[in-house]
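Field: sequence (string)
Field: structure_tokens (string)

Example rows 1 and 2, in order.
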Amino acid sequence: MKRILYLLVLLLPVAASAQKLSESAVEDISTKMAAQFLKLNDPALVFVTEQMSRSGSGGLEVDKTMQDLKKDPAALDAALKFLYQYSDCNRQTLIANLRAMNVNSGNVFPLATYIVNNNKDESKALVEEKAELYRIGAIPKQISVMVAPPDNQNQAAAAGAVLQGAPPANATGVTPEGSTSAASPAKETINTAAGMPVDTRNWDVRNVFAMMKPDQLLEFYGKENVALRDAVDFEGNDAGKAWVVYPDTENEMEVIFYKDSTKAVTFSKEESKWRSPFGIKPGDPIDKVNKVNGRGFRVNGFEWTHGGTVDSWEGGAMDKKGVVILFRAVNSGDPKLYDKFTGEKKFSSNDASLKKLGVIVEKITFRTYQ
């Protein structure tokens, strides 16, 4: 019996360490993933980066996160999970992908073991999600430059503008330093098939997060597609000037550049095609925001100061990520029910009654920080 206890004492530290990566392994995989990311055409890293953006695991400026994963353990774990997902949750395929990234041979098997053990319970769901993402086109199977053409695609198509021979990119269209891609001008990105225009515009909001000044916005989306207008905050107060991309269309996006190099990107159109962090967009029900946040959160009562805005994410996935959401109730015809959520009070997003009110996202702002 004493011998068994002695063996357990020896084995427990080994078992515990199996769930933790060494500093050299963390440094190695972080450096190698950054190198592959900067190539801008590596299918595995395109997939990982898209998933980091969709899930919000990479924060608002996911390009910066991908270049220094070792500084954010949670982001590194998420990136490794998505690499495992890209590998079809198959250990041998994962090992092959790690080797293809030139991970040091001494770190390959510890990394593979760590990744598999951390995500084995999610394997089936991850494989199914990957298949669905490819099926609906949420993640590109073929990597190509996708820059934004004019919103009036018929006019551009009639002019015969066709993108030819563009070099590959990671579907961001902006270099990691924030300078716009010179691979193709914005006016030359309409492909046609059988005479019908095909939308090749890049709807990834990450392009904007990487920009430092309005000139980059104008260059990337085209001066004819951007207007400078007065801006207001969620309560209708003056918020200065905003650059509006595709103004007066369903794809309208408002960008405010601040003097400290931070920016605010706001969406208010329900039919917008933009792909934003966390996958949240105007028109989404509050239940979806609950799921993305991973827990309930606190909302300010409607028709009051900061009415309908999130007061606290309660430590969820969107906490301290620069995400500001304004909700509205679609079905406010029941005064007794509506009064429960109005006035100087705060309510939980988990309240079942909110479904009867049809509470949805009205506006969403992503605020970047230095």
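Row 2 begins here:
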Amino acid sequence: MESNHDSPAALSTDFSGHSHGVTSSTFARAKRSFLRELPEPDLFVVTSGGRRIPAHTGILASVSPVLENLIYRPTKRRSSHKIVLILGVPCDAVSAFIEFVYSSRCTEEEMEKYDVHLLALAHVYSVPQLKQRCVKSLYRRLTIDNAVDVLQLSRLCNSPELYLRCMKLVCRHFKAVEQTEGWRFLQHHDPWLELDVLQFIDESDSRTKRRKRQREEQELYLQLSEAMDCLEHICKEGCTSVGPHDVGPAKVKKEPCGKFATCRGLQTLIRHFAACGKRVGGGCHGCKSMWRLLRLHSAVCDHPGSCKVPLCRQLKLRSQQERRKDEARWKLLARKVAAAKAMSTLLQAMMRRRPRPEEVEETFKPGRAPRATSFKLAK
């Protein structure tokens, strides 16, 4: 059992001034000045190995409310030095914890070696700055092999960010995580956490499928919106070989429009619809598609009286008079198509306003003088 007594100066022997942009000589002078101003230690922190670390009640109590309660709680035995027991972790981890309490610093070597123990100490004794540093260190060292262990620790130490990061890693690499010793231990000793992991994976899969379905629906609504625009464009101005019924072939625009891929397919559908003898009774598959496009246009169109799309006014009046059962579905589809078009237009406008990468590089190019701006004071 260790029984070495650390001196007050030894509390800061591993401080790293360079990590905060301070030169080592400057930091050493500041450290010596700080230690000279401190009074004699009035408290000992005792570790599991029997190490007694001298400390000051005022400093510990000012950083940790838990240590403050331990220090100033009434005790039966009277002594010139108070004693605080910090057990269950390595002695060097306790020394690193006390060093952080004094200096708000911790070396990278100590953090890499004792980040798990320091996270537990920071949580137990309510030191949020140290807890944040430990979480960042565990972020960097998180792997498939230690994901389950860190997951259990994050739940015990109430670290939701680390818990979520571990859950996502386990979800992405579940087949590999299942082969680890940590997962086998979890199955035998913590079935509730195992259930939480499986529920998270199931919900993640459901969210992925739901997002995929919503993305496909959005693409379909955008295609229908583009088809509506092309239908109005063909019936109002004409495009290549198909045009309005009251405009001669010579006046129809022969140049392909910007959405010619959709226009060309729609023109083929219109020519088939005009020539098909089955369209009155519902028609073939192509005719049914054309009837649906015309019906959707009548639900979307706000000016049926002046609209040049065939059957627009008749279909709208018919739907209003008959009050068919599927009218609500057509209205819902029309709203979704309009919403998809509005979102697409807004996104395109935002993309146009966003600066191009070469413009950003030109703005922040090294050696480029900032643009001078002149101001005039109002008289």
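free_text_note (row 2): Confidence is low (pLDDT under 50) at residues 1-24, 372-379.
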